[in-house]
């Protein structure tokens, strides 16, 4: 027994190296987002966080599905023959043909080369430049003026300036590294107080700016969108993302972890949780799976309990398809490969995207996905489970429907990978599990995004305003900071001074407050 245990230990490094080689062959870079250390150097197949377990593998449908009733002798064969005939009539076939992968000639990465002396604020201002901040100054002062005309003069108010607006942003951003919900703790004498930051601006002045802060002061007569107070900022941010980064071929559509900071959840009381207002919007992203860079943001605002509200959006696959179309509206004709979750995956959507030069690979769930046009025999689990790693495939044109077994049935729909090519999932305990290449690619890319989410949630702005547009604004700023850090790690500036994500955030705060030079120290 001891000898067998020693053999297993000797095999572990080899399995790790094999997993890492497969990982790199799928064109997924090292963990650009993470710091050095055990959290960021592991292979994505071995992620053990709750988010990774829920997102990367989806959920097996075996628990919800039940095998069909027992039939008499000969009945299963007759039913199988009838099913095959029906599938053939619908265009589905068990005959597999090799097909080339979508050709991609572009190279992903930063578009603009930043100098080695670039500071944290230089990378941040690729997305939030001074002209955007100046507009916030104008709109905040305009709102303060109109507010006082309506509700009475505020003798303590003085028009905000650009340096003050930068400091204001810096104070709120500081909650992403301190993990303290109350920005006002900076001026307190408690654990989260920071005297060096508190000296830049008084607490009274910060509270006045917070009271009147606006991106768009008033609704125009032509505006009907519920996010009108923050939409110009989102549009500007999107333009900055497009101008600064060129994504790789493989991308993921998903809903990132934005609900709560994990430190707050672990330490708060039930009363504090009950006081929280339910979030009135949902946020999806299109994200580069090679680097973690978020390419595009889509915000769906809950505007009531109607058919287009958030509750309906969570339950209706056709509305998730609308989200996917919005996120991919600039991806046409570039041969991108998009990975999707069960709520988005559908034959109709994938065929529509293929006509636009967008290829897909998605996890499929008979309970959550739109299964219109798919062969029923592939959606039902057999009475006796097959051996681990076994799979069956049906094809229709360039589309492949895969049913793969690994302690449960997992189904995938793809037109991006050949049904003939084989892959392997490498697990630390069970070793190699054979699978189609599409399954391996999905597991690798989604695990990488789960690792990104695990780290991303640690550096989210903890300030929680009550107004929905302000919540969206600070979520977007958090995404911009994470994207700025990714560009920083891919630049020459990172080789001058290697900041971790926490150090990058702290330096950005000090630079916005004017407490640091805007060039890295040598």
Automatic annotation (TrEMBL):
<feature type="region of interest" description="Disordered">
    <location>
        <begin position="30"/>
        <end position="113"/>
    </location>
</feature>
<feature type="domain" description="PiggyBac transposable element-derived protein">
    <location>
        <begin position="119"/>
        <end position="485"/>
    </location>
</feature>
<dbReference type="GO" id="GO:0005634">
    <property type="term" value="C:nucleus"/>
</dbReference>
<dbReference type="GO" id="GO:0098038">
    <property type="term" value="P:non-replicative DNA transposition"/>
</dbReference>
<feature type="compositionally biased region" description="Low complexity">
    <location>
        <begin position="67"/>
        <end position="80"/>
    </location>
</feature>
<feature type="compositionally biased region" description="Low complexity">
    <location>
        <begin position="47"/>
        <end position="59"/>
    </location>
</feature>
<protein>
    <submittedName>
        <fullName>PiggyBac transposable element-derived protein 5</fullName>
    </submittedName>
</protein>
<dbReference type="InterPro" id="IPR029526">
    <property type="entry name" value="PGBD"/>
</dbReference>
<dbReference type="Pfam" id="PF13843">
    <property type="entry name" value="DDE_Tnp_1_7"/>
</dbReference>
<dbReference type="InterPro" id="IPR042423">
    <property type="entry name" value="PGBD5"/>
</dbReference>
<dbReference type="GO" id="GO:0004803">
    <property type="term" value="F:transposase activity"/>
</dbReference>
């Amino acid at each position: 027994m001891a000898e067998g245990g020693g053999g297993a230990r000797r095999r572990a490094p080899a399995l790790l190296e094999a997993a890492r080689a497969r990982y790199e062959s799928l064109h997924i870079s090292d963990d650009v987002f993470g710091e050095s250390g055990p959290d960021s150097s592991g292979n994505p197949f071995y992620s053990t966080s709750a988010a990774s377990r829920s997102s990367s593998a989806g959920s097996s449908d075996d628990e919800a599905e039940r095998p069909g009733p027992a039939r008499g002798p000969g009945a299963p064969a007759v039913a199988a023959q009838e099913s095959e005939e029906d599938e053939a009539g619908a265009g589905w076939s068990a005959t597999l043909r090799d097909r080339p992968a979508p050709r991609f000639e572009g190279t992903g990465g930063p578009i603009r080369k930043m100098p080695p002396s670039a500071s944290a604020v230089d990378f941040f201002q690729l997305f939030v430049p001074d002209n955007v901040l100046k507009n916030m100054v104008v709109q905040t002062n305009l709102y303060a003026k109109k507010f006082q005309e309506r509700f009475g003069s505020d003798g303590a108010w003085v028009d905000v300036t650009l340096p003050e607006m930068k400091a204001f942003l810096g104070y709120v951003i500081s909650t992403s590294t301190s993990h303290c919900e109350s920005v006002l703790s900076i001026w307190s004498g408690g654990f989260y107080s920071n005297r060096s930051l508190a000296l830049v601006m008084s607490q009274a002045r910060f509270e006045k700016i917070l009271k009147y802060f606006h991106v768009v002061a008033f609704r125009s007569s032509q505006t009907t969108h519920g996010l009108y107070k923050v939409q110009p900022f989102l549009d500007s941010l999107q333009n900055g993302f497009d101008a600064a980064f060129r994504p790789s071929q493989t991308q993921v559509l998903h809903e990132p972890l934005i609900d709560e900071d994990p430190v707050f959840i672990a330490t708060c009381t039930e009363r504090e949780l009950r006081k929280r207002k339910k979030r009135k919007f949902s946020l999806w992203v299109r994200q580069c799976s090679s680097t973690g860079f978020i390419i595009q943001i889509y915000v769906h605002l809950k505007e009531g309990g109607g058919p287009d509200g958030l509750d309906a959006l969570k339950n209706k696959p056709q509305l998730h398809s609308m989200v996917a179309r919005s996120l991919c509206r600039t991806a046409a004709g570039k041969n991108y490969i998009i990975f999707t979750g069960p709520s988005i995956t559908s034959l109709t959507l994938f065929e529509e995207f293929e006509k636009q030069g967008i290829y897909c690979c998605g996890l499929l769930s008979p309970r959550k996905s739109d299964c219109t046009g798919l062969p029923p025999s592939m959606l039902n689990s057999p009475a006796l489970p097959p051996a681990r790693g076994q799979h069956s495939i049906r094809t229709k044109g360039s589309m492949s429907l895969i049913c793969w077994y690994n302690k449960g049935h997992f189904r995938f729909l793809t037109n991006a990978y050949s049904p003939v090519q084989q892959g392997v999932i490498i697990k630390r305990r069970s070793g190699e599990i054979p699978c189609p290449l599409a399954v391996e690619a999905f597991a690798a890319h989604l695990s990488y995004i789960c690792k990104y989410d695990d780290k991303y949630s640690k550096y989210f702005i903890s300030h929680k305003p009550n107004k929905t547009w302000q919540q969206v604004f600070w979520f977007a700023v958090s995404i911009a900071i994470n994207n700025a850090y990714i560009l920083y790690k891919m630049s020459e500036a990172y080789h001058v001074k290697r900041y971790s994500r926490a150090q990058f955030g702290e330096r950005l705060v000090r630079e916005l407050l004017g407490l640091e030079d805007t060039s890295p120290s040598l």
